[in-house]
Write a structure and sequence with these properties.
Length: about 240
């Protein structure tokens, strides 16, 4: 087994006259967390959509383990071990927290028995006291955690999170950092983020996108000091 989990090369995506992703390559090792940052419209979500199978690149290659993902039907992605959380929550709002996790488990299939796996996930998410609450009634932050939990129920090899802290309070953001940091041993996680404090707290290898391209990649400390990055992004905040 090689140490590389996913390798994307020279991905391009256009929407009409707009080039959303313009020659992006990305190598993901097994395990660990990588952050992708960049200003609005940089192409981050479009890149995610290609990695997660919801958009087919105009050109480029994506390998996951020893498979070519381009053209593979979306329903195959979960089975390969690729899970993603969208920017907009997509919970079953009229079901309880517990039942949302049960449904997600059925979709993914799990080795442990249902009560053990769901109970463990409730603990991980800090939602043990909310098992019987309807998903619609959860505060915003908890909804996001439940969605991360749903993605985790299939024990993915790769978890893609698009702006998981959007709209969260500082305290919720802090707890989300702890949750995600605790998962990086068991799987590879890629997080798109806007919130610099979040990325700084995770202190993960970071890729910076701007106008559809990768303009920098490296440890967050280096990224934060990089003059080009500061000019196009950090400096403007
Ligand atoms: P980010 O997530 O970094 O904010 P996006 O990937 O959402 O950036 O968008 C990159 C560019 O592609 C933007 O100019 C955006 O308007 C455009 N874009 C994204 N999705 C679509 C789409 N479905 N149709 C047309 N344009 C799109
Ligand atoms: Mg986006």
């Amino acid at each position: 087994m090689t140490s590389v989990l996913m390798q994307a090369e020279d991905l391009h995506m256009h929407f009409g006259g707009i080039t959303a992703v313009n020659g992006v390559s990305l190598t993901l090792e097994r395990g660990g967390i990588r952050c992708i940052i960049g200003p609005n419209g940089a192409g981050k979500s479009t890149l995610f959509n290609m990695l997660a199978g919801t958009l087919r690149p105009v050109s480029g290659t994506i390998r996951f383990e020893d498979r070519d993902l381009i053209g593979l039907h979306l329903h195959k992605f979960a089975g390969l071990g690729i899970a993603r959380k969208f920017q907009v929550p997509s919970l079953f709002s009229t079901m309880t927290v517990y039942d949302n996790l049960v449904v997600a488990r059925r979709a993914g299939g799990g080795a442990e028995d249902e009560a053990t796996q769901v109970g463990g996930m409730l603990q991980t998410l800090g939602l043990a006291g909310d098992a019987d609450v309807l998903a619609a009634e959860l505060p915003h932050g908890q909804k996001q955690w439940l969605e991360i939990g749903m993605a985790l129920m299939s024990s993915p090899k790769l978890l893609l999170l698009d702006e998981p802290t959007a709209g969260m309070t500082p305290d919720e953001t802090h707890r989300t950092v702890d949750l995600i940091a605790g998962l990086g041993d068991a799987m590879t996680i890629v997080v798109i983020e806007h919130d610099m404090n979040f990325v700084r707290a995770l202190a993960c290898p970071t890729t910076v996108m701007h106008q559809g391209r990768v303009i920098a990649s490296g440890p967050f400390g280096d990224i934060e000091r990089d003059h080009t990055v500061r000019d196009v992004y950090l400096g403007r905040q």
